[in-house]
Amino acid sequence: xxxxxxxxxxxxxxxxxxxxxxxxxxxxFRINLMAWYRQTPGKQRETxxxxxxxxxxxxxxxxxxxxxxxxxxxxxxxxxxxxSLKPEDTGIYYCNFGRVVLGSRSLDYWGQGTQVTVSS
Length: 120
Hints:
By secondary structure, the protein is mostly beta strands. The protein is 0% helix and 59% strand. The strands form two sheets. Strands 2, 4, 5, 6, 9, 10 and 11 form a seven-stranded mixed β-sheet that branches. Strands 1-3-8-7 form a four-stranded antiparallel β-sheet, with no helix packed on it. The relative contact order is 0.32.
């Protein structure tokens, strides 16, 4: 089992910055993919950014150049640095840890979510 605790969500004005943190504990040695998802009312939960155990990151087009996902291996924390925030970035941000091999997901853990609100 893996436990995830997110923090860092807040209310911020457009153009501002936030850093989200996801602290993991438990059997993280099995994990090879970590990601941040965003949930907004009326929409499906979407992947914002992800990073592999090897450090390869990828981003949704809507956040490229503004968000950066990173990982502190020693502390088992994954961060999402968000800059130039826009009102459309508003939502609940969830941390996800999983194990994906050849496209098949065998492990899937979620945090409780942290609210990000960006005012115009």
